[in-house]
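Incident review: delayed structure delivery

Summary: a single-chain prediction request sat in the queue longer than the usual turnaround. Root cause was a stuck worker, restarted by the on-call engineer. No data loss occurred. The affected request and its eventual output are reproduced below so the record is complete for anyone auditing the incident later.

Affected input:
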Amino acid sequence: MKTREFEFKQTAEDMPTDPVELRGKRRGNERMVVLDRSAGTIEHTAFPSILGHLRAGDLLVLNDSYILSNTLAFRYGDETMDVTVYGHEPDGANIVKIDAARPPEPGTTLTSVDDDRLSCTVVEPQPDRLWKVSFEPAELLMPTLDRHGRRLDETIRLDPKSWKSKPEAYRSVYARKPGSLEIPSAGLHFSRELLDRISEKGVELAYLTLHVGATEVLAVRHISAEDVENHKVRSEYFEVGAETAAQINRALAEGRRIVAVGTTVMRTLESLMIDREPGSPVQARAGWTDLYIYPGFRFKIVDALVTNLHRPRSSHIVLTAAFAGKDLVMKSYGEILDRGGYEFDMFGDCMFIV
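Output delivered after worker restart:
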């Protein structure tokens, strides 16, 4: 399938750079487009109406990861340099950008300015002027980023004052695990009040973790290949606990819908069933996934999807087309653009696919 089939015109004005609360709006009042796959229909509504589209017995699965600062200052000799973390790797290493007058040589060890227990050893160069490095001790990286880090962004522009003073605006209300380098954004639409009403309706809530990493930060989600099948995404770390696995298995056994909130949840859930037959029980698991979902993919778990409005030629819109069908998805984007006023990307409006 040609990547050009997922092109449409979009402007920077369509992509807000701040969360809704920082733009004088209330979380959860965004616009929403509902796609019904079986009926082939498109409905333009507002996000609170999702309550009417969810059913008692549905299992709503949410990603509880939240975005961290990504940049720390390190010393090497007399020089101080910024190290920006762009991704986590399955072998325990990290992909970073090093802002230095002269890039350090492989084997060089840098020391954190904020905590001299944390070191960064340069391993080897990577594409896009990045570096593979090893932080030691590895378990100190996340708390140091959380406590002392700053945000330096190339994919999104976060206001540094708001980022420090109102971090909750950049997180879902249920976020509890630091580790993402960009925002798992579909969850931003849910207020605590709406989640309470969803639970009161009889919808069951479940949580998993996927830390958004290099796939987002390196703009790997933008597909430059001529054919979508030739695109690759990088590995991201996920955790599905025993309680969540049991909730999923009960829903599958009882024929209840499983609703994924975000492409991160979709990729995590479907990763659990790779090389397994439909109907096989889900196992609690922690690991890495580089699952890339494009048209032709066979879904084994997810029945409905909440996702944001995505950029053209992105792996996210291709995933959406794999789930809802390319023709219906691109028709809906045509209507969205014709109507005007919709906002895209992580701080924009959303879509619910049933």
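Verification: The first strand starts at residue 31 and ends at 36.
Action items: add queue-age alerting; document worker restart procedure.
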